[in-house]
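REVIEWER CHECKLIST
Item 1: Sequence provided? yes
Item 2: Single chain? yes
Item 3: Sequence as submitted:
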Amino acid sequence: MWAKALAALVGVGLACGAAEAGTLDKVKARGAVICGVSTGLPGFSERDAKGAWSGFDVDFCRALAAAVFNDPSKVNYAPLVADERFEALKSGKIDVLSRNSTWTIEREATLGLLFTAILYHDGQGFLVLRHPNITSALELDKAKVCVQKGTTTELNLPDYFKYNNMTYEAHVVPTVEEAMKDLEDGTCDVFTADQSALYAERTELAKPADAIILPDVISKEPLGPAVRNDDVNWFNLVKWVAFGLIDAEELGVTSENTDKALASTKPEVRRLIGVEGGFGKALGVDDAFVLHAVKAVGNYDEIFQRNLGTGSKLRIPRGLNQLWSAGGVLYAPPMR
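Item 4: Structure as written out by the authors:
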């Protein structure tokens, strides 16, 4: 009896070990990471006329490819609408989802997913076309509200209106593009989404200056990459690539000074870039996996400013997304 039980446990352990190794092995054999992104959200993931992808979420995909292959170009992008993104991940169509998705208990407990890190601290807000009588979301009683299907935004909306004793008419649409079109033609009075998305979509309006993002933030929306929950090794690798980008900013390692970093005598820097520690090999990649990622796309600040901040057309303040040491809440465990 005990022998059978032990054999069963060993079998489970071997099965788990095989699952843990699976995704990285498949990625290496394929020669590219398959990364799920949005169908088009300025600053986060968008494709130019030549088909080249760019954005905050896209740069994380590139960082992951650099960590695995030392080549940020080894990514196949899978554009997904909100309603199909999690099924694409669960079914194995993609290896990682990097698509402005909120970390929630439901998505981990019932969908078989794991969120690896918070790369953008966001919150739900409201966008209205310039209207002199509306300065707060508390003035939206009886409004027609455009909202995207299959999002936490859709779930938060009734909670907010019910709690504040207001009524509304929901106009649920499959894509952000359709929501913005309906806002412009008057089908809706207001569009609700994560504030980052509101900043992004406002730039696409014919007259961006005619749109106002109301000051109210009605939810917590921690956004970050997600993977399946059946592969601990892949989960750890994706997680530590994200943490590495944040730690690189804190330690002053940038895409421009990686050669200098290699000569650093600071223990934290030497572990980050793989000179000491041997952490990469433990994850199945080169010890310098974070160095490869930073050299390819920059540290967290470089990625943020290029796509969302001062170097972009969105010019979103970092706010909560400042490092914890600079007044924000962005924090990553140390590499040691």
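Item 5: Key structural point noted by reviewer: Residues 246 and 300 are 5 Å apart (CA to CA).
Item 6: Recommendation: ____
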